[in-house]
Amino acid sequence: MPSLKFTVLAGDYIGPEVMAEALRVLDHVAAREHLALDCTEAVVGGAAIDRHGSALPEATLRACAAGDAILFGSVGGPKWEKLPPKEQPERAALLPLRKHFTLFANIRPGLLYPELADASPLKSERIPQGIDIVCIRELTGGIYFGQPKTTVTLPDGDVQALDTMVYRKSEIERITAAAVTAARSRKKKLCSVDKANVLETSLLWRKTVTDYVAAHAPDIALTHMYVDNAAMQLARDPNQFDVFVTENMFGDILSDEMAVICGSLGMLASASLGARQNSRGLPFGLYEPAGGTAPDIAGKGIANPCAQILSAALMLRYSFGLDAVAARLEAAVKKAVTSGVRTGDIAFGRPAVGTRAMADAIIAAY
Length: 366
Ligand code: NAD
Known about the structure:
By secondary structure, this protein is of the alpha/beta class. The chain contains twelve helices and twelve strands. It has two domains: about 1-105 and about 270-365, 3-Layer(aba) Sandwich (Isopropylmalate Dehydrogenase); about 120-260, 3-Layer(aba) Sandwich (Isopropylmalate Dehydrogenase), CATH 3.40.718.10. The protein is globular. It starts with a strand and ends with a helix. The structure holds nicotinamide-adenine-dinucleotide (NAD). Nicotinamide-adenine-dinucleotide (NAD) binds near residues 74, 75 and 296.
């Protein structure tokens, strides 16, 4: 029986609540699919600060490195807000994890079932079929990391700040390869988003994406769009995209816009894939809900576990190569939600169920 070796980092507030349900669902999936789970739980975020004085203890990092993937909850919250910014759980746990495992490709499905279309500010008239698109964001390059990064006082007394936007061809090629893989698993349509009318990095981006697709993926229909237009088109008609790929800062902004038009954060999963291959020759990845720790609803047993469960499905697909199993799990989530079982964030006046009952419905639908 093949065993799936991954590390579980549940984190803070609703993190452990939704993770417990995701693991229960995964146990059911594994039993049905004749798979064995080999998961190690480790402490991260605020919980790790409280216990070990560090948001990402050495032992947690070692546990992560020993597995083929990380299933992550979320970290942070009011309890640790007074810490200096560098020690805040999100910054002190997630950024080092991204860096350590070179998690350069952030995959964010923008998914809204037609039955939930009214959760979107676009409303059901504009998106009667719901939303089903994927954003791929480059995560380790661009203006957030480029050097130099300085603030100086000029001789005339004015103050000047400088950020550097920098990309190498090899960085663009590897994110394009990840985007091509995602596009191939869907409609084979890829839109590359840049600002090639203004930025040097975008000129290189556009040329590299074009050359890569021509050489390695002639089966993919590639288009290009400027980022300002992409922001408008997402709000006007999101389904014109299937998969879009973009650099770090543009992706930061567009993926948040996409989360808003998709309604509840409780439904949105994400995957961050690394440059390193795991023991199966597939990308090592970190899989997590798009939302945070939701301290406002923590401890009440009412958080929506779907985003965590859909993140587990992405892990099965990308780090374990179990595409069909992932698709069956995604279908079970859809079946449970569209049959009317809903947590409060997606109930819209219907009676709401709790975190555990939502997971029970997904287990029953699998
Ligand atoms: P949040 O995403 O935690 O919550 C925003 C809103 O969405 C809240 O009303 C919350 O109740 C709701 N929500 C989020 N997930 C939900 C779910 N699964 N089910 C039902 N409702 C859900 O954002 P925030 O309030 O700005 O942040 C809270 C904390 O989370 C902060 O400390 C922040 O730094 C942290 N955070 C962590 C991550 C991460 O670990 N990756 C990401 C974002 C925010």
